[in-house]
Automatic annotation (TrEMBL):
Gene3D superfamilies cross-referenced by the UniProt entry: 3.40.50.11290
InterPro entries, per database record: ATP-dep_Glu-Cys_Ligase-2, CP_ATPgrasp_2, DUF403
Transmembrane regions listed in the UniProt entry: none
Name listed for the protein in its UniProt record: Putative circularly permuted ATP-grasp superfamily protein
């Protein structure tokens, strides 16, 4: 060994020692890094050696890169009760699992998926397990997720579960235990994928050298399994979401985009002739498979929960008729009840003829006398949970209480409730979760975690994701972990013994049918794209007014001449709701309000928030760059409206926001596929720009308008330079009006917007092939003809107002034809052929 190599080895050893020397597992708690014999596990040693070689500064830089990637890509979630999204809390270190241990985990999860599939099939089918006494009837019927309306309903292929998840943790014996089953609508798989993408980009060499198994084959197999379950070739698969205010909406949109599924809400679907159809701008289109992320009880307000606004009326009838495949089947959530865990060992032997490969937490249901007496004999040594997910001692639902932590009064109350109605409670062994290393304040510390493992039904049986969704507690003594305050999520690296082949979801089969469009656009998506365009254009008009106002105040030489023009701008602010009706006389305070007000519905901030909300409803259809710019625009305007603001600062802020908006428009123009979605986005901007230009022309191009106000009009339509190069004699009313309204060569004129609107509308599908013009097309052609045939010297305020009202009618006609539900659904039925 050369001196240089020896020196390098010593340096690497010092760095490794410095990194791990202070790490100490918690007393009497199993740890992933340090084995029960006190010796670090080999795969962790390899990982930390490679990490330490980067050096402290480089490690910090890589962590910062991961955090920035999370922000830039908009990975987010909502904690229960949150009104706004939070940035995804990524733990900087992955959880490592070596291959031999992983094989045992995968075998246990696969067996459990097979078992639960058989149990739920029996519950809603022959009920032999209840009849033979293996599963008490009360343990089933007492569960709120048991749906008796579905008894006897057999899904296509008798497949109830398509995606199963098991929450597991390492028990005190060093083995992995199942803590909970997730069969209703398992979440977290999309976040596991997002974690992987972020970590692999932050540490590409380390990720490669550790031979980490890829996640793409699992998602590919899951997608192929859903395709294979459909009754038709080339099926339409929908991901049914509760909507953008759900805690995990980002994940749902992320998975829909990654897998190529159609993200829909209940209002997007309707039942016709025992089939579920998607309401699209081209009429009703059949949905073949629905991957639901709503609870079963909310799926059909006609037969299940009548208060639901998330489901589809008639869905259960469609399921009975075999008109759609549901993943997972309605009613599958019955398996998640903690009471079920007390019977799993017995059920596994009865149903599969096997012992559980992976034990679950020991559970005793208090609905049985002997088990109830055992729990009452030592409540302080158990965790008490609701047998059916119900609340215990007023705690949140699905949250267990540890008997030893209760006061004497609480303990007595709990004992009394168990004695009175034991059926509602289970006692469970108190589990001390194992710990994994996390990075805190520049050092490694142990923190408890829960690992969620996923199994997907495929054409060849069950397959398990080689990774998972890991939640790490911020407290060293946590027993259960949910995505709340102080909780982080880690990527899970399942290590292979050799190099791993690179796999993606991109198809390689040369027989794949070529497509150049993404399919039919749902009406809801078209609606939100249209309004995204309108809100952005409204915000742009407001920002242009603010920039114009600040610019006039900066130009002190002409301030006296523009006082009346400034007053007109302020009046327009009041009319648009940009500032309050009883506005401050301080002009710069008005500018600050117009930019940053949280109260006024027409402020630039409020309009951008409206645009952000519309964008959040269609996040799966927007590029990462577009979403990032919309987030950036919102953050630029989200400032204190009461802070003092100079004319230059107002001008600069408005200008910066306008530049960001120009970038958003540029992305849509240059990068967005020219499908129906692009047409609706552009129609929203065009129609709003035309309406605003009419208002500008009426407000600043009135018959008595002085030069200063005409100059403002040219500024607002970004045509000052063009006008001055075209007309040498100075600013005059007629030419300015013509440039703003009638000039078809001016990209800011009304005529230009109407011409483009006609082009967009002509590209949209029609419902009936009878040769008759639909209302939007007819109105747009009429406006175009009226604008084109208007003579400049006959253009007056009344004529401009006529154009403005016609444009408003066009917007209403577009909404009535493409967006509205209710009575307009009947028109969609006339679409030729349900594809």
């Amino acid at each position: 060994m050369t001196m240089t190599a020896a020196s390098h080895d010593k340096t690497a050893a010092k760095r490794f020692a410095a990194l791990v020397s202070g790490y100490r597992p918690l007393p009497n708690v199993p740890d992933e890094f340090i084995g029960p014999d006190g010796v670090p596990r080999e795969h962790w040693v390899k990982f930390f050696h490679a990490l330490s070689e980067l050096g402290g500064d480089e490690i910090d830089r890589r962590f910062a890169t991961a955090d920035r990637n999370i922000r830039d890509t908009g990975v987010s979630y909502r904690a229960y009760g949150d009104t706004s999204e939070r940035a995804w809390p990524l733990s900087h270190l992955p959880l490592l699992i070596e291959s031999d241990e992983w094989r045992a985990i995968a075998a246990g999860v696969t067996q459990r998926a097979r078992l639960l599939e058989a149990v739920v099939g029996d519950i809603y089918g022959p009920a032999d397990l209840v009849r033979n006494g293996d599963l008490p009837a009360a343990a089933v019927t007492g569960c709120t997720d048991y749906l008796p309306q579905l008894e006897g309903l057999r899904p296509p292929g008798d497949n109830f579960l398509f995606l199963y998840a098991a929450d597991i943790g390492r028990g005190p014996d060093g083995n992995w235990w199942v803590i909970g089953d997730r069969t209703q609508a398992p979440s977290g798989a999309g976040y596991a994928l997002a974690n992987r993408i972020v970590q692999s980009r932050a540490f590409p060499a380390l990720y490669r050298d550790m031979n980490v198994n890829r996640l793409a084959p699992f998602f590919q197999a899951f997608r192929d399994g859903l395709i294979g379950a459909a009754a038709h070739a080339d099926p339409r698969i929908c991901l049914l979401t509760p909507g953008p205010y759900n805690e995990t909406y980002f994940e749902q949109a992320y998975l829909a985009r990654y897998l190529g599924f159609l993200l829909v809400e209940g209002g997007d679907l309707t039942m016709r002739d025992n089939e579920i159809n998607v309401r699209t701008i081209a009429g009703l289109k059949r949905a073949d498979v629905i991957w639901r992320r709503i609870d079963s009880d909310y799926a059909d307000p006609l037969e299940l929960n009548a208060r639901s606004r998330l489901g589809v009326p008639g869905l259960v009838d469609a399921l009975r008729a075999g008109g759609v495949v549901m993943a997972n089947a309605l009613g599958a959530g019955v398996l998640e009840a903690p009471v079920m865990m007390s019977f799993m060992p017995r059920l596994c032997r009865r149903v599969l003829g096997e012992d559980l490969l992976m034990s679950n937490v020991a559970t005793w249901w208090c609905g049985q006398p002997r088990e109830r007496e055992r729990v009452l004999a030592q409540p302080e040594g158990m965790a008490i949970a609701g047998a059916f997910g119900n609340s215990v001692l007023g705690r949140p639902a699905n949250q267990a209480v540890v008997g030893a932590s209760l006061t004497a009064e609480e303990k007595q109350k709990l004992v009394s409730e168990i004695e009175r109605r034991g059926i509602d409670f289970v006692g469970q062994e108190v589990v001390n979760l194992s710990t994994t290393p996390v990075w805190e304040d520049g050092k490694l510390v142990p923190r408890p975690f829960v690992l969620r493992i996923y199994a997907a039904r495929t054409r060849d049986g069950w397959t398990v994701m080689p990774g998972g969704f890991c939640r790490i507690s911020g407290r060293p003594d946590a027993r259960a972990v949910s995505m709340g305050e102080g909780v982080r999520s880690a990527d899970v690296w399942v290590l292979s013994q050799g190099p791993v082949q690179h796999v993606t979801l991109l198809p390689t089969d040369e027989t794949v049918r070529i497509r150049r469009v993404m399919g039919h656009l749902p009406s809801r998506a078209a609606d939100n794209l249209f309004w995204l365009g309108r809100y952005l254009e409204r915000a742009e008009a407001t920002l242009r007014l603010i920039r114009c106002l600040a610019g006039r105040l900066i130009d002190t030489d002409t301030l006296g001449n523009t006082r009346s023009a400034i007053e007109r701008i302020v009046r327009l602010f009041v009319a648009w709701g940009t500032v309050p009706a009883k506005a401050s006389s301080e002009v710069m305070q008005l500018a600050a309000t117009g930019l940053h007000s949280n109260k006024e519905f027409g402020s630039a901030l409020a309009l951008v928030r409206d645009a952000h909300r519309a964008a959040s409803f269609i996040r799966e259809r927007l590029s990462t760059d577009t979403w990032r710019l919309i987030e950036q625009l919102r953050s630029e305007l989200d400032r204190d409206e009461d802070a003092s603001l100079t004319e230059a600062e107002a001008h600069e802020r408005a200008n910066a926001a306008l530049q960001t908006m120009a970038a958003i428009a540029g992305l849509a123009q240059e990068n967005m596929i020219r499908g129906a979605g692009w047409h609706f986005l552009r129609m929203g901007r065009r129609i709003e720009r035309a309406i605003n230009t009419c208002r500008f022309a009426r407000h600043f191009g009135h018959p008595e308008a002085p030069v200063e106000e005409l100059d403002i009009l040219l500024d607002l339509i970004d045509s000052t330079i063009t006008y001055r190069s075209r007309y040498m004699m100075g600013i005059a009313l007629g030419p300015v009006r013509d440039m703003a309204v009638l000039d078809p060569f001016n990209p800011r004129s009304v005529a230009f917007q109407v011409e483009k609107l006609n082009g967009h509308i002509s590209q949209l599908p029609v419902l009936a092939e009878d040769g008759m013009l639909e209302a939007p097309r007819r109105i747009a052609l009429q406006i175009g003809a009226d604008v084109a045939t208007t003579v400049a010297d006959k253009l007056d305020i009344n004529r401009i107002l006529t154009f403005e009202n016609a444009l408003l009618s066009l917007a209403e006609a577009i909404a009535a034809r493409y967006f509205l539900q209710g009575p307009h659904v009947a028109r969609a039925d006339t679409a030729s052929g349900l594809a």
